[in-house]
Amino acid sequence: MLRLLITPPRAAALATAVLATALPAAAWLTGPTAGHADAAVLTPLSAPLSGADAAAAPERKCTLPGGLAELSGLAMSRKHPGVFYAVNDSGNTNQVFAIDCNGATGLLKATYTVSGVGNTDWEGLAIGKDSSGRPAILVGDIGDNFGTRAEITVHSFTEPDQLANASVTPVTYRFAYPDGKHDAESLLTDPVTGRIHIASKLIGATGQLYQAPPSPVPGQLSTLTAVRPGPVFATDGAFSPSGASYTLRSGGPMGANTASVYDTAGTKLADVALPAQSQGETVTYLDCTSLLVGSENDTQIWRVPLPPEATPGCGGTPTPTPTPTPTPTPTPTPTPTPTSAQLKLVNPGPQSCKFNQNCTIQLTTTGGKPPARYTATGLPWGLTLDANTGRITGKPWATGTIQITATATDTTPATATTTFPLTLTWF
Question: What is the mean pLDDT of residues 198-220?
Answer without folding.
Answer: 96
